[in-house]
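FIELD: query
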Amino acid sequence: MFENTKKNKMESAVIIGIFILVITLIVYYICHALKLGTMSIAIAFICSITSAWASYYYSDKIVLSLNRARPATREENLKLVNILDSLMVASGLTTKPRLYVVEDKQPNAFATGRNPENAVICVTTALLEKLDYYELEGVIAHEMSHIKNYDIRLSCIVSVMVGFIVMLSDMFSRMLFWGGLKKQDNDRDNKANGILMILGLICLILSPIFGSLMQLALSRKREFLADSTAVEFTRNPDGLISALEKLENDQNQLEVANSATANMYIVNPFKKNSKTGTKKTTNIWSTHPSTADRIEALKNFK
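FIELD: result
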């Protein structure tokens, strides 16, 4: 577990570095196309640093706002609070995660935050209603595993950064469509500017695609580890197995779901099929490994 935590911290630092470079190139390209001249590189660098800083320190607030989550209370969510308290010793976490609830008919949950000291576990009201004590315990243990392994920092940063890149790409395409950009014949004579412009255009076009693929690959890889760590916390694989079956087979749509944060949930919040449930296969566009594969891996603990 220590090696995985260390690896996640290193991956987070690398991703932030790549993000700063990509955003710098994209914003430079846009500024240069808008004829901002020598100010383009300064604006690009400031935008990339500011967005990276905001993604790191405010990613949890952004995600909670996107999902319209509210704080859980002991009076209304006593079972949830008790389960979290009972798992604190087993998990080894020194700071108790904050609990949030989303009003929704689909049973689901996610964890977010930049580190275990600033972590959040968020569940839907349907999860609290449809799962029994041991199933809910398995789900909370799974989310605490993401916190323990620093998966939350990695997934949250990637989600916010990919969303920001997609927003920039969308903004640029709208400007281009409405004729907001003009040709820069004089600037094209400058080879250095030409190279930066080409790199910026490439990043603008391809970054959303590669960013999303990276986001999905990281999510799939981390779900298996979180499942196994959850079983170490609860010593009860049956609870998580039963929970995963219920969550996967529930056909309610998550109204607050969006593509930027779908990878953070314990199961894919987008229900495309009405019957297949745990029979779904995994591909490069999957937000999660198939539930059938996850359940099979959990059964090996028994």
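FIELD: remark
The longest helix spans residues 191-234.
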